[in-house]
Structure prediction request, 530 residues.
Amino acid sequence: MFRHFVNGILKENPVLVLAIGLCPTLAVSTSAYNALGMGVAVIFVLTMSNLIVSAARKVIPQNLRIPIFIIIISTFVTITDYVMKAYLPELAKNLGVFVPLIVVNCIILGRAEGFAYKHSVPAALLDGLGSGIGFTLVIFIIGSIREILGAGTWMSIPGGFEGFKVFGEGFLNYPVLFMILPPGGFLVIAFLMALSRKLTGEA
Amino acid sequence: MLVSSSPHIRTKETIESVMYAVVLALMPALLGAIYFFGLRALFLTALAVISAVLTEYIYQKITRRPITALDGSAIVTGILLAFNIPVNSPWWLPVVGSFFAILIVKQLFGGLGYNIFNPALAGRAFLMASWPSIMTGRWSAPIRPAGSTMSGIDVVTSATPLGVLKYHATPEVVAKLNSGPMLKALFIGNTGGCLGETSALLLLLGAIFLLIKGIIDWRISLGYIGSVFVLTGIFYLFGITRANPLFHILSGGVMLGGLFMATDMVTSPVTPLGRWIFAIGGGVIAVLIRIWGGYPEGVSYSILLMNMVTPLLDRLTIPKRFGEVKK
Prediction:
């Protein structure tokens, strides 16, 4: 049972191995804080939707399953969206359209269709948690690397903590803007994919 | 490499002989850069070259590949990268640029012969994206007094002729840009700009040497510079651009790009027809960026874009085999 949990983090990591969910991974990983916020939102939605889909799998008709999955997922996305807007308005502003877009996130739809619909509730719960944490870990690492190189800070929070200054003042004046831009995101993902394949011995 | 039936012609050409010939051909422009911009030009170029060679050496050492850091290709990349930055750049700019060009653009794609993009140009694009304020905001006028300077137009930032054309084109300024003394200054190289791009004369001098040795193909250079000339000529007649076509081919990076960057053996097509399409496409894109794009200059992006379609051009333009019948 526990392997369902570890599976999503390592062997079937959504971003590094399955290469799905790349759109939010690229778009909101410009800072570590944004990435973490996105990751937590995805963990919540993924776990809850997996849970409900799995619990209701016997009553969801085969040919109507996709619309029903979407309704379940969008329920939790709406909850997340409202909670975030109420309690973390700055974060909600930064993530912008990518919070509502979690509805069509392929990781969540993929786990619902590929796993939760065919497995028991505890297995689906662990799978959702594992995949969500796997996604969060990767997007947080990407966000950290991009923020450190592209802005010179780490964990800066808009309207709050101004972040750890990793490099000196000279660097802060001339950070590697490239890393904040989309090509920098692709580059970091590519390096992490290569590294993970090296570590898992697949290359 | 496809080996066909005999007889075979052996060539004495090696990577080293080609690359060092290119290095030699770049020397006039380097001397020109030192003359026009001062010794700092040499300092920045040396840093770029050292960084390029060291990056290649260390990467090949770590990955236990045959060490080819001194085959001259890294030196060419370093020089070309330095030619693409303004003289007032901080010392670390060419170092970081060369590092990116060699590690990411060249070695990670498989090393010499496997890179999709011209490393020096992609390095420049990286620097442009990362530090636009340095790459475009720190032009310095050449240290030699010129016959027709841009002074009085923008003394503080000493804009390049192309920047002036894009952002400060009043009728008097345009008349000055199209004047004989200005064109002469552009031809000799006594204008603001990146280190190695200003002197059309010295670049041509080196390029003629390479053309005679058969290292660069006249089709690419002629196609690129020619299409810029023809297209801006047409636009000039219709009043779309206010600078004459001579100004357009002599200013900015057209000479450097058309003679030394687009002609890069690895990243340009191998078939003659492919080379024509490659060159003309690049020239057209450069002109489009200059006239309608957000930047004053578009040479580097035009060549990078054409680099991208090079494999496709090669595939589309395979020459017909002798005796082949259309299916």
In short: The mean pLDDT of chain A is 91. Strands of chain A lie at 153-154, 164-165. Chain A has nine helices and two strands. The first helix of chain A runs from residue 2 to 9.
